[in-house]
Design goal:
β7 and β8 (about 115-120) form a beta hairpin. The chain is globular and about 70 Å long. It has about 450 residues and is of the alpha/beta class. The chain has helices at about 10-25, 40, 75-90, 170-185, 205-215, 225-230, 250-255, 275-300, 390-410; strands at about 5-10, 30, 60, 60-65, 95, 100-105, 110-115, 115-120, 120-125, 130-135, 145-150, 165-170, 190, 200, 205, 260, 265, 270-275, 325-330, 335-340, 345, 375. It binds flavin-adenine dinucleotide. Flavin-adenine dinucleotide binds near residues 99, 128, 130, 343 and 390.
Length: about 450
């Protein structure tokens, strides 16, 4: 089968690209191994709600229009939001189709699936950045009496045995899990490395409102000093709750969670924690201060100071002194470990030499320069600080379609014009792309 573009994955990233492709009448197909929005249906724990407010759920030509713009959707609601989008844009999704290999050939790309083969000129990798939990190698040395889980195995506290739980990692996932496990009556020890502290509310508004308004979330990949480092910055310690509660380390300590340093080793069944906890917390407090300074400066510059409460600062993180450096896992106090130590993408099916030593796609703002005609969407700080959020897929797709269309234009000898997308015009705008064979690769207008 032939098409101009194969999009791998029907999450928000793949669908945002599909809408932009359709808008330019670029013939394409979206291949999805399970179902639309499957990550939100299958890979999240029961209580998870978005940490981004509902008003920030935007996709090209589509936005949240419910009655609770300042609320936070449940996973089922997010899945419905994305599934409705797929239907509204008539995305040419083929569900139940696993891509088993993508390779280059003289004609562009050969995409092998368990439902047959596709030949195409361009490929969009929209398969997700958080497919596999990252578990450090020292997990092998954990005593067998301790059950180990990842956020993909964990659904609810009742899945855990009674007894203490070591949660490793204090980014959004780790703090949310530590919070609900502690409240279930299982005492939690939370191992904390580098982290990003964030309050839910500041000066009467949601922190995401401030970060968007002040341009923090829009910061571009080619504007930051060290993009490699920026792409590794952990997620902010936030959760979406009706109470708009903070989920920082002070909030967790207040409910009895025990804070320890980064898990640095495992010796004879004893977990060894780094002594750098205080430094890590001071650094996170410092960075929070810088963020709030930038917000305050922006607010003053916009003449907003009269409209919102005055600036204030949060209590420094209370670090236990001395902090616990060892925990004997064989003693029986800890019955489970939850590895909230990050996620990685899975490109095991990608047979093109575009991965770096860490298994990440080498790219320049989503353009996979080492493999012309290949594009990436949905990874952290792809083009903007918000790239891995739902809202990030919206802007990134609208940028990437310009690159992709220009590539097709070039491949066609430069005799085709690129149409500009009509930004986020209300649906229904484009009609579904017309299937084409090579030679009439894509059609303009629509
Ligand atoms: C725990 C957690 C909480 C998050 N909370 C928020 C939040 O509050 N707000 C926010 O904006 N973002 C949040 N995100 C980030 C982001 O929005 C989600 O990860 C989102 O699912 C990413 O969408 P995506 O389309 O890039 O990838 P995915 O949703 O992962 O979609 C990729 C799709 O590709 C398919 N696929 C993968 N490999 C293949 C293959 N070989 N063949 C065919 N199909 C394939 C998968 O089945 C999947 O359906 C969160 C992420 C995580 C992990």
């Amino acid at each position: 089968m032939r098409t101009t573009c194969v999009v791998v994955g029907a999450g928000q990233g793949g669908l945002a690209m599909s809408r932009c492709l359709t808008e330019r009448s670029i013939d394409h197909v979206v291949l999805e191994r399970t179902e639309v929005a499957s990550a939100w249906r299958r890979q999240r724990w029961d209580s998870l709600r978005l940490l981004t407010p509902n008003w920030q759920c935007r996709l090209p030509g589509w936005a949240y229009e419910g009655s609770d713009p300042d609320g936070f959707m449940t996973c089922a609601q997010v899945a419905d939001f994305i599934t409705s989008y797929a239907a509204a844009i008539s995305a040419p999704v083929r569900t139940g189709t696993s891509v088993t290999s993508v390779s280059r050939n003289h004609d562009g790309y050969r995409v092998a699936t368990d439902q047959g083969e596709w030949q195409c000129e361009t490929v969009v990798l929209a398969s997700g950045a958080f497919n596999k939990p990252h578990v450090p190698a020292l997990a092998d040395a954990v005593p067998s009496c301790v059950r180990q889980l990842t956020p993909l195995d964990y659904h609810r506290p009742g899945d855990l045995s009674d007894g203490g739980v070591l949660v490793v990692g204090a980014s959004a996932t780790g703090v949310q899990l530590a919070h609900e496990i502690q409240l279930s009556g299982r005492p939690v020890v939370l191992s904390v490395g580098e982290h990003v502290r964030g309050p839910r509310l500041y000066r009467g508004r949601d922190i995401h409102w401030w970060m968007e308004a002040a341009g923090v979330l829009h910061e571009r990949y080619d504007e930051v000093d060290d993009i490699v480092r920026a792409r590794r910055v952990p997620s902010m310690q936030l959760a979406g709750t009706d109470e708009r509660a903070d989920f920082d380390l002070n909030a967790l300590s207040a409910i009895g969670v025990r804070i320890v340093g980064r898990l640095a080793g495992m010796r004879d069944g004893v977990a060894l924690f780094s002594g750098s906890l205080r430094n890590k917390c001071e650094l996170a407090d410092l960075k929070l201060g810088r963020l709030l300074n930038a917000i305050d400066e922006w607010a003053t510059g916009q003449d907003l100071d009269g409209d919102v409460p005055p600036p204030h600062r949060f209590e420094p993180t209370a670090v236990p002194a001395p902090s616990m450096l060892t925990l004997d896992l064989a003693r029986g106090d800890i019955t489970s470990i939850v590895w909230a130590s990050g996620f990685r993408p899975d490109y095991s099916w990608l047979d093109v030499d575009v991965l770096d030593a860490k298994g990440m796609v080498r790219h320049d703002g989503g353009v996979v320069s080492d493999s012309p005609g290949m594009y990436l969407i949905g990874t952290p700080f792809l083009r903007r600080r918000k790239s891995s959020f739902i809202d990030g897929a919206c802007d990134d797709a609208q940028d990437l379609i310009v690159e992709l269309a220009a590539f097709l234009d070039g491949a066609a000898g430069g005799d085709r014009m690129i149409t500009r997308p009509s930004s986020t015009a209300q649906l229904p705008a484009p009609r579904a792309a017309t299937r084409s064979t090579r030679g009439s690769a894509y059609r303009r207008g629509g």
